């Protein structure tokens, strides 16, 4: 006779203080990334939290948004200029790994941002995935 398995937990248990800390970090990183897209912040300032490949992708997207040859800022840069992070949420997916989402609103629209943050021993939290809608 097979032994019944215990129900699996949907989420790993983590402290609410840690989750709150990760949510705050996700909001700050999201705000800084949007400032990079607007041309208001150099991408190098995110180096402590993002690996080189994500920094390069973020810089490329910022450059593409500013490729408009007109003397006025591109529509993309103007939209990002007045952006604010309106919310950030995080869920523990395994010990030391959170997936977070944030909502960024500007004058034209709201967009979603998704991040994966991992606690790297000796280095603190690092973003291992970043998607900006």
Describe this structure in words.
This protein is α+β, with helices and mostly antiparallel strands. The chain has one domain (16-132): Nuclear Transport Factor 2, Chain: A (Roll). Helix content is 33%, strand content 30%. It contains three helices and four strands; from the N terminus they run αααββββ. A four-stranded antiparallel β-sheet has the order 1-2-3-4, with helices on one face. A hairpin with a 3-residue loop joins strand 3 and strand 4 (124-132). Helix 1 crosses helix 2 and helix 1 packs antiparallel against helix 3 (75-81). Mean pLDDT is 84; it is low at 3-11.
What is the string of helix and strand elements? HHHEEEE
Terminal CA distance reads 51 Å
Which class in CATH terms? Alpha Beta
Query: Shape, please?
Result: globular
Strand content: 25-35%
Low-confidence stretches: 3-11
- Give the beta-strand count: 4
Structural class: alpha+beta
Tally of alpha and pi helices? 3
Characterize the largest beta sheet: strand count, sense, and whether it forms a barrel: 4 strands, antiparallel
Helicity range of the residues? 25-40%
Number of domains: 1
Q: What is the average of the pLDDT values? A: 84
Overall radius of gyration: 18 Å
The side-by-side strand order for the widest beta sheet comes to 1-2-3-4
Quote the CATH topology: Nuclear Transport Factor 2, Chain: A
* The CATH architecture: Roll
Index terms:
133 residues, alpha+beta, Nuclear Transport Factor 2, Chain: A, 4-stranded antiparallel sheet, 4 strands, 33% helix, 30% strand, disordered N terminus, DUF6459
Summarize the structure.
By secondary structure, this protein is of the alpha+beta class. The chain has a single domain, classed as Roll (Nuclear Transport Factor 2, Chain: A). It has helices at 16-38, 52-65, 75-81, and strands spanning 84-94, 97-105, 110-120, 124-132.
